[in-house]
Design a protein that fits this description.
With about 250 residues, the protein is α/β, with parallel strands linked by helices. The chain contains seven helices and 15 strands. It has helices at about 35-40, 100-110, 135-145, 160-170, 185-190, 210-220, 235-250; strands spanning about 1-5, 10-15, 15-20, 25, 30, 50-55, 60-70, 70-80, 90-95, 115-120, 155, 160, 175, 200-205, 225. Strand 4 and strand 5 form a beta hairpin.
């Protein structure tokens, strides 16, 4: 966030930080661990400076710092204001992609407004994502800061395909992307379905879903849909689908 100082005629950059729920007690705020180190050592903030703190409550807290050390930063809330919010809850069930591709999925999805990521292991999944969940969560937090979100999305540990389907079945409009679907597009599904405050998008691995995985998902209430005539990479498909959902449900003129 940038504020203009009318006296100094300069732009003042206000830094954003994320804290776990419970870190704001009345007007008192505490930053610890990675966020405290970033404030004290990387940004070299000093007492008296103001920052924006968000704690997942969908509000922004303007905080004046009172004490700054590399292990702990404290401050007091001087102003609260509502943050921006997307009127639909987006969940991305993403087959774990190789290497940095999954990092890109988390970053782009966070910037677009995904509320929760469920990494999934399918029959054709090559990467397992072992030990990478904490990295993905850090990427989500950084992307949330960049896009001025007032919440950071949750990132679950990788689960088998059947477990992911069990988790999302019956919780909203569930759409599974499949290149084998030739007629029903994601647009058709979104326009024809009853209004839903929660949309779950399921994306397959580099090699695509096995037919029996599609059958399993559909049997549990998912709709198989197409994104169009072209086959997208796994790291592209989720971002494309989420963008389409947002347009259809929040941006398309009535």
């Amino acid at each position: 966030m940038a504020l203009r100082d009318p006296v100094q005629a300069r732009v003042v950059i206000v830094r954003r930080f994320y804290v776990p729920p419970g870190s704001i007690n009345g007007d008192a705020v505490t930053l610890r661990n990675r966020e405290a180190h970033h404030a004290a050592v990387v940004l070299r903030l000093r007492p008296g400076e103001k920052v924006i703190i968000v704690d997942g409550s969908r509000a922004e807290h303007i905080v004046e710092l009172t004490e700054v050390t590399r292990r702990e930063v404290t401050g007091r809330v001087v102003k609260r204001r509502p943050g921006s919010a997307i009127p639909v809850e987006l969940v991305l069930v993403q087959s774990v992609a190789k290497g940095a591709k999954m990092d890109d999925v988390i970053r782009m999805g966070t910037e677009l407004g995904v509320a929760a990521f469920i990494p999934v292991l399918t029959k054709r999944t090559v990467a397992e994502g072992k030990g990478r969940t904490e990295r993905w969560r850090r990427i989500a937090v950084q992307a949330a800061k960049q896009s001025h979100r007032t919440d950071a999305p949750s990132v679950a540990d990788p689960v088998p395909f059947a477990g992911a389907i069990e988790r999302v079945a019956g919780t909203g409009l569930v759409l599974i992307l499949w290149e084998g679907e030739r007629t029903r597009t994601i647009g058709h599904a979104l326009r024809e379905a009853p209004a839903s405050a929660r949309v779950i998008v399921i994306v397959g691995p580099e090699g695509g879903f096995e037919p029996d995985e599609i059958e399993e998902a559909v049997a549990r209430g998912a709709q198989a849909v197409s994104l169009g005539p072209l086959v997208l990479r796994t790291e592209t498909a989720g971002a494309a689908a989420v963008s389409m959902v947002l347009y259809e449900l929040t941006l398309r003129p009535a």
